Task: structure prediction
Amino acid sequence: MPRWRRVAVRGPSMSPALSDGDVVVVRFGAPVEAGDVVLVRWASRPGQLSVKRAVRPAVEGWWVEGDNPFGSTDSRTLGPAMVDAVVKARMWPKPGSLRRKR
Result:
């Protein structure tokens, strides 16, 4: 698996930080800190990758939530997630780094 990959964001769950259609660069193997935007998967949905915000470490992975609580399916519904990669920057349409949310 490559250490870096482009990922397209789908859906409104990370609004306003990210929008549907944004393209981000993720890094596999990067250390995760609370507040990071991350690429995750859940045991109950193994084929689905999601972009969420890491809130806190949990026994079985990370507790993650979307920035838009009204448009996100996240740990509040699915429990802890496994983090595959950390989002390092947005490539398109507004290139730049993402702020860590505290």
